[in-house]
Amino acid sequence: MAKIKTVEYFRLPPRWLFVKIVDEDGNAGWGEASLEGHTQAVEGCLDAYRSRVIGMEADDIEHIWQLLYRFGFYRGGPVLMSALSGIDIALWDLKARKLNVPIYQLLGGKVRDTIKVYAWIGGDRPGDVEIQAKARKAQGFTAVKMNATEDLGWMDSPSALASCVERVKAVKALGLDAGVDFHGRVHKPMAKQLARLLEPHQPMFLEEPLLSENMEGIKEISRLTTAPIALGERLHSRWDFKRFLEAGAVDIAQPDISHCGGISEMRRIATMCEAYDVALAPHCPLGPIALAANIQVDAVSANFAIQEMSLGIHYNAGSQDLSSYTTNPEVWDVKDGYIGLLKGPGLGIEIDEDMVRRLSVDAEAWVSPGFVGPGGEVREW
């Protein structure tokens, strides 16, 4: 076994943070620690983690995970877990490449050969989505996701919900399945109404009908509708998911592999959800490393349902896209709603390191958008 020699990170457009780990024998692995809108905080955490892991055995992935999670007294949350995610994913990539096998072979072996996927349509202020939905269908997608609404007041006019229903109807008329992301921007008085309005149109799922901090409200809404409730991008460990599973408040789990502790923790979350008959549909509007890492877990998870991918997402407009930073972007080709299982060693993607290093120079940190109401009050984005 070889010890960890270097840990580097690279801030990259459009809003990603890559991690590279090299051991003393020259074996390398790549991870992704992207945390949208909080890049600098994660970089600071990676600086601290780097000093802890250099000199440790690179093969001891679980020991390193436990060390970074438990040492330091304070634990969990988006910043610490995103930094841990980047290191964990890179260590899995390094180990599997050294053994010349895909990561999923180290997780017990695959249970499927293809991965069902969906893509985004619309933006943060969703408008006419029919043209975008047709384009996604032409790309090979059979399912899409869109934001439910623009920003809303705590108690807004019921008429503000009508356009969401019309967008879902338009997409469904094209023969596509449609997930609807409430994005946590819809508060309980409006969310109850919107869930009921959408139910007759059979959305694929209702995502974050309320912010995850309002578990009791989510449980209440889940009792009001037969539409599946999906959430998890703002839950950062198995312990965060635990209370939602025990409450029966979620039907589809959406952990984000760059926020929840990497491959190691997502695998644990997936198997825990299986015990509650909850499906796995990982959140991933991020870069190619995060998506490739998700696919390694998707491949071995019996309860996997569908995978989000960021190809052409509105956040990538005018910048790099999912096919950037790699030399084998053809792995993301979609056919009949599926992509093939990644079969190369490690993550199954090949990073263009020259491009990574070149575009990371003076790269700016992405700033999250925000919404302000007519009275100047801050609204949920």
TrEMBL record:
Keyword Ligase annotated: no
Cofactor (UniProt): Mg(2+)
Pfam families xref list: MR_MLE_C, MR_MLE_N
GO BP of this protein: amino acid catabolic process; D-galactonate catabolic process
Domain Mandelate racemase/muconate lactonizing enzyme C-terminal: 126-228
Coiled-coil ranges from the UniProt annotation: none
Keyword Lyase appears in the UniProt entry: yes
Keywords: Lyase, Magnesium, Metal-binding
Superkingdom field: Eukaryota
GO molecular function, one term: metal ion binding
SMART domains: MR_MLE (SM00922)
Name of the protein this chain belongs to: Mandelate racemase/muconate lactonizing enzyme C-terminal domain-containing protein
Organism (species): Pseudogymnoascus verrucosus
